[in-house]
Specification:
Blueprint (H helix, E strand, L loop, with lengths): L2 H4 L14 H9 L28 H12 L3 E6 L26 H17 E11 L1 H14 L4 E8 L16 E8 L14
Parallel strand pairs: 1-2
Antiparallel strand pairs: 2-4, 3-4
Helix pairs in contact: 2-4, 3-4, 4-5
Length: 197
C-alpha cells in the first residue's frame, strides 16, 4: 500500500485522549441523588441576600446546581489539584501514578467531569478561571480547549513568591503559577481604553 493509503484507515482529529474518557463523560451526566439544604441560622441576611455558600463534594454540588443555575453563573473559579503529591492538603493532590503508562488519566478524568458541569453553569457573559502550575498547564489548556472550544480568552501570571526555592543547583526557580481564562461570547473585562497620548 502507498504511504498515503495508510492515513485513510479512519477518522483522525486533533485532541486529547486518555484511558477512561468515555466512561468519564457518562459519569458526568449521571444525576446526583443528593439534596441542597439551606442553613438559615449560619447564613447572613438569608431573606435579603442572593449569595449562596455551599459545602460538599464539588462534583455532586456541580450536578445539583444544574437544576436551578444552568446558564446563570457569571464567574467560576477552580483551584484544582496540581499533582504535587502534597499529603498535607485538603484533597488528594497525587492523581498521577509514577508507574502508570496512562500517567495523567486519573487527573484528566477528575477535572473533565467538573469542567463539563461548570461550563454548563456559565451565563452568556460568564467566565471560568482555573489556577494551575507550569507542569500541568499544557494538559489543562488542551482539556479546556476541548470542553470550551474557541472560548479561550488568555491567561494571567500569578507571582506566588519572591526568590528561589531551587535546591537542584540549576538556579531555575518557578515563582509563579497561571490562571487560565475561558469565557462565553458576551463576556468582556472592564478596563480602560488605550491611551495613545
Amino acid at each position: 500500500a502507498a504511504l498515503g493509503d495508510a492515513a485513510d484507515t479512519g477518522p483522525e482529529r486533533y485532541g486529547l485522549s486518555w484511558k477512561g474518557k468515555a466512561e468519564c463523560i457518562r459519569l458526568a451526566q449521571r444525576p446526583s441523588s443528593a439534596t441542597l439544604l439551606p442553613d438559615r441560622e449560619a447564613s447572613v441576611d438569608w431573606d435579603t441576600t442572593e449569595n449562596l455558600v455551599i459545602e460538599g463534594d464539588n462534583l455532586e454540588v456541580l450536578k445539583l446546581l444544574q437544576r436551578g443555575y444552568a446558564g446563570k453563573v457569571k464567574l467560576i473559579y477552580i483551584d484544582p489539584p496540581y499533582n504535587t503529591g502534597n499529603k498535607d492538603w485538603v484533597y488528594n493532590d497525587h492523581y498521577v501514578g509514577a508507574n502508570d503508562r496512562w500517567r495523567h488519566s486519573q487527573w484528566l478524568e477528575f477535572l473533565y467531569r467538573r469542567l463539563l458541569l461548570a461550563r454548563d453553569l456559565l451565563s452568556s457573559d460568564g467566565v471560568l478561571l482555573v489556577s494551575i502550575n507550569d507542569e500541568n498547564r499544557a494538559r489543562l489548556e488542551m482539556l479546556l480547549d476541548e470542553v470550551m472550544p474557541g472560548r479561550r480568552v488568555g491567561s494571567f501570571v500569578w507571582k506566588t513568591r519572591s526568590g528561589s526555592n531551587d535546591e537542584s543547583g540549576a538556579r531555575f526557580s518557578v515563582d509563579h503559577e497561571y490562571v487560565l481564562v475561558y469565557a462565553n461570547g458576551n463576556f468582556s473585562f472592564r478596563g480602560e481604553l488605550k491611551d495613545f497620548s
